[in-house]
């Protein structure tokens, strides 16, 4: 498709929508307008590999206290006109603290909702007086409120994007028959070291009393808003199958998706797609786990395997696990193991945790 020669101006104003639908199939997506990169704007790609962070970054657990930067941060979708068609686009605005933001633009729509999987453009901006002004190549862009207006170099409007609040399709999924309910908001007694917040959420750093072999796990989790933190210091936790194999929990909104980011199997494999939602948004893991096999002498004969759905989308598909996660609390072995929710020093919260042992499903 012929690229539109114009560049864009982005403007935000009030408006919000909620997305709970299914993923747009590739064949149903509108044609993609691939926006040109901005060579004049230096960009440093933010990833969870970064280690520098301001000392003692603030961690907000209540959106009402998170400030203006949190209200600007979020996801936006809409259509942009080209010379011959309209094309969906998605935008993720990521707060970095002190009114600074990363802005990620996806051709086709948001990840898991139309993105073509290839065209991902990164720019940045700063908030001043409730507005954000930044350069996109030779053009200027302005963001304010909760909508994005796109204008070409001549000042003509070529599209509008609205803020959306996506919701995992498995959020609130009830425990099925034969499930073992580990946490339903009434008690943390199923966990060693179990602690609850005043509003009935499970706190990090707990290990289930019961141990499991092959199973299906559902857990809902929420990272804090830590705009000045970076990398592994930004809303970090993890859920360990059998206390051995970690699926990472991290504020990974707007990142590229690595093994130590949300959806990653730590130290083994990055997610096929970064489906992370913004911090302070409830997210879901649905994990199918098959334990490793050992012979009578204790030698491993078959690796453990895992399928991971992040926010209802498969991001790890039947992945072999050749070894336990580094620093896992339980060494590899033939015995069943617990569910462990890691304490990495950040106030990550959990709710609606249940597990269905595979032998119970068979019954």
Features:
363 residues; mainly beta; Jelly Rolls; 2 domains; 10-stranded mixed beta sheet; 7-stranded antiparallel beta sheet; 2 helices; 24 strands; 38% strand; elongated; disordered N terminus
Description:
With 363 residues, the protein is mainly beta. The chain folds into two domains: 10-166, no CATH class; 180-362, Jelly Rolls. The protein is 3% helix and 38% strand. The chain has two helices and 24 strands. The chain has helices at 68-72, 358-362, and strands at residues 10-11, 17-19, 74-81, 86-97, 100-107, 120-128, 131-136, 139-144, 147-151, 157-166, 180-183, 191-192, 202-203, 206-208, 215-222, 237-241, 245-249, 283-290, 293-294, 300-302, 304-310, 313-321, 340-341, 349-357. Strands 1, 2, 3, 4, 5, 6, 7, 8, 9 and 10 form a ten-stranded mixed beta sheet that branches. The longest helix is centred in the N-terminal third of the chain and has 5 residues, at 68-72. The protein is elongated.
């Amino acid at each position: 498709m012929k690229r539109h020669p114009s560049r864009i101006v982005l403007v935000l104003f009030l408006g919000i929508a909620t997305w709970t639908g299914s993923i747009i199939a590739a064949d149903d997506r509108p044609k993609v307008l691939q926006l040109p990169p901005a060579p004049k704007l230096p960009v440093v790609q933010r990833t969870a590999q970064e280690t520098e962070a301001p000392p003692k970054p603030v961690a907000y657990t209540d959106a009402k206290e998170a400030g203006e930067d949190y209200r600007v941060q979020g996801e936006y979708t809409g259509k942009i006109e080209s010379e011959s068609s309209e094309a969906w686009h998605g935008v993720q605005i990521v707060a970095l603290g002190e009114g600074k933001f990363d802005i990620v633009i996806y051709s086709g729509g948001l990840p898991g909702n139309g993105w073509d999987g290839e065209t991902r453009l990164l720019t940045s901006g700063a908030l001043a007086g409730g507005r954000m002004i930044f350069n996109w190549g030779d053009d200027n862009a302005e963001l304010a409120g909760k909508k994005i207006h796109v204008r070409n170099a001549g000042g003509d409007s070529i599209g509008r994007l609205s803020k959306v609040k996506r919701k995992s399709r498995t959020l609130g999924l009830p425990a099925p028959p034969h499930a073992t309910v580990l946490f339903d908001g009434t008690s943390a007694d199923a966990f060693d070291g179990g602690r609850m917040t005043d509003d009935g959420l499970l706190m990090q750093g707990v290990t289930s009393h019961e141990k499991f072999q092959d199973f299906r796990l559902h857990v809902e989790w929420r990272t804090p808003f830590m705009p000045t933190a970076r990398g592994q210091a930004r809303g970090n936790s993890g859920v360990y199958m059998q206390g051995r194999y970690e699926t990472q929990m991290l504020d990974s909104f707007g990142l590229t998706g690595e093994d130590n980011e949300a959806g990653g199997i730590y130290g083994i494999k990055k997610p096929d797609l970064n489906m992370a939602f913004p911090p302070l948004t409830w997210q879901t893991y649905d994990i199918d786990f098959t334990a490793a096999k050992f012979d009578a002498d204790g030698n491993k004969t078959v690796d453990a395997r895992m399928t991971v759905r992040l926010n209802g989308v498969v991001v790890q598909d039947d992945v072999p696990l050749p070894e336990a996660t580094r620093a896992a609390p339980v060494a590899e072995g033939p015995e069943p193991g617990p569910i462990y929710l890691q304490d990495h020093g950040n106030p990550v919260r959990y709710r609606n945790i249940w597990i269905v042992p595979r032998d119970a499903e068979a019954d």
